[in-house]
């Protein structure tokens, strides 16, 4: 059994204008010590996916269906009290903006001790010793001094290191990191990602990394999900998806990167923009932007417009695309006839 | 498609031609300090029984020299707080420099009044980072695009203005129906398209773009970058392009200036810079781009963080984080020195051949 098993997750937001379905049919698993990336553009639902894992979706949002199982316990039906034992303790989170996560009126040490004492029966002195040890692990210079400093006295990169130290405080099994380096500069980003990767490997911690940066995902994770308009459209081993993406959207996303084009020439853009979740196109949500809805004979594939594509297995990856399904079917028929 | 691509490729002026190209904008020894100490009365302190005046400054730019050639795209890269946006805003006259001069097409413009600057404003336009903040929420798109035309062409009649707006909308791919709508009705990419249309409305020759695609999603970034390149090709524009995204620079820039803590540490043609970065900071910066390839080259880890621009380090501003720093680096500020291939680097280690 996988450490974390998410199946058929369905998250909705009840708005005055009607219900918006932020996530549909999202299923994935995470093994112990595995690093999984969730990639997508803004509005794809990747942050909602991360927040819903710990039942942190605030009203008017709610989990309408599906299940999240952590070591066999279903998190989405668990009591708030039971969840509190898991949040921060077994599964911890790192958010994008370190300043929003840290309490500005408490010293770093106080926040770390508070977190430890909430979950373990230990003295303040012991807690402080653990906090100090974690600060050393994230390679903060002069950690003793930092314990008594306040968040505003530290730089952005330093704050994010503190957040990582806090996330590691109770030796969790899984860390969910939502765009952990987006607010940071490239050189600092590289440092923080390297640190996170090292620590996850050392302590055998599972990582769910949410990001829009394909470069970061390809450097850090072993498997990845690509999301579009609330659905997972492609998932599989990171290397395979990066090297040979199957879904037209994933292909478009990778090809749109400046490094994929010859300098000075046109970039391969995807036309149009991500549809609003309250007004999704019929069938495959990507079809209005897709270059492959026409068959080789010039006819539009009706399924793309009428029917939501299911997953097909392509190599080690799962892809939700009618075009890919058709290609695979053709190939199978050809092989059978030979 | 092919002819278009090759025409675009010609825009990358080869290194040997850069020297002969005509200078459009020249920035000479530009410095900008921002006061942190407030008004005169706020600056007064009691010290040892005496009233003393205490002043503190952020040294945003410390002696930047740059020249921008006609038809090129000069990219300025650097991390947050390095002064790249201050350079852009000073060039546009939005900030008055503390010291130094800016020459536009041979004329000094940094000391002009806003009335005297008006004819230059028509020739140079700016695109801002955040299209949510740069469009007036109370104006329709039509009004937004008409405003610069009314200001710069006071003699034009209504029909002339309407025709021009329609033309510029067409050239950036804006649906004419958008004219009646307001900024908040559009997505980030669409708003940036409108902001570009507004900049192009007065037919400028020079555009300062301050992180124009940083707030946008990857697939939209490509659309906007393509639009900027098409406009450059069609209108023979010159760009001063401010960004922190090195992948964009590699694709878009003719030349690159790398900034660190208010100084330029390296200027080179894009291909030279990416093939052969000289300055230790440039090397570290390039090595930290997350790449898609698996065989990641070990990224160069810099010790510490960018020092505050309030108390600048002595000597080379990078010495505290530089793996090659020696006694001379701590004392002496390195000037930009021309290398054999036209690259200019401000580094004692490069000059002494230690690197």
Write the layout of secondary structure elements.
The complex is a heterodimer of chains A (338) and B (355).
Chain A (H helix, E strand, L loop, with lengths): L3 E12 L2 E13 L4 E5 L6 H8 L7 E10 L2 E2 L5 H7 L4 E4 L3 H4 L6 H12 L4 H14 L5 H5 L8 H13 L5 E5 L7 H18 L2 E6 L2 H7 L2 E6 L2 E7 H6 L4 H8 L46 H5 L4 E4 L2 E4 L1 H16 L1
Parallel strand pairs in A: 3-8, 3-9, 6-7, 7-8
Antiparallel strand pairs in A: 1-2, 1-4, 4-5, 9-10, 10-12, 11-12
Helix pairs in contact in A: 4-5, 5-7, 7-8
Chain B lengths: L1 H9 L4 H4 L4 E13 L4 H4 E4 L2 E4 L3 E13 L3 E5 L6 H8 L7 E6 L2 E2 L5 H10 E4 L13 H12 L5 H15 L15 H13 L5 E5 L7 H18 L2 E6 L2 H7 L2 E6 L2 E7 H6 L4 H8 L39 H5 L5 E2 L5 E2 L2 H5 L3
Parallel strand pairs in B: 5-10, 5-11, 8-9, 9-10
Antiparallel strand pairs in B: 1-4, 1-6, 2-3, 6-7, 11-12, 12-14, 13-14
Describe the structure in brief.
Chain A: It comes from Halomonas citrativorans. The complex is a heterodimer of chains A (338) and B (355). With 338 residues, chain A is of the alpha/beta class.
Q: How would you describe the overall organization of this protein?
A:
The complex is a heterodimer of chains A (338) and B (355). With 338 residues, chain A is of the alpha/beta class. Chain A folds into two domains: 4-221, 3-Layer(aba) Sandwich (Rossmann fold), CATH 3.40.50.300; 244-271 and 282-337, no CATH class. Chain A is built from 13 helices and twelve strands. Chain A has helices at residues 46-53, 80-86, 98-101, 108-119, 124-137, 143-147, 156-168, 186-203, 214-220, 238-243, 248-255, 302-306, 322-337; strands at 4-15, 18-30, 35-39, 61-70, 73-74, 91-94, 174-178, 206-211, 223-228, 231-237, 311-314, 317-320. Chain A has an eight-stranded mixed β-sheet with strand order 6-7-8-3-9-10-12-11, with helices on both faces. In chain A, helix 4 crosses helix 5. With 355 residues, chain B is α/β, with parallel strands linked by helices. Chain B has a single domain, classed as P-loop containing nucleotide triphosphate hydrolases (Rossmann fold, 3-Layer(aba) Sandwich), CATH 3.40.50. Helices cover 35% and strands 22% of the residues of chain B. Chain B has an eight-stranded mixed β-sheet, sandwiched between helices. In chain B, strands 4-1-6-7 form a four-stranded antiparallel β-sheet, with helices on one face. Chain B has a two-stranded antiparallel sheet with strand order 2-3. In chain B, a hairpin with a 2-residue loop joins strand 2 and strand 3 (50-53). Classes of the chains: A alpha/beta (338), B alpha/beta (355). Chains A and B meet through helix 8, helix 9 and helix 11 of A and helix 1, helix 9, helix 10 and helix 12 of B.
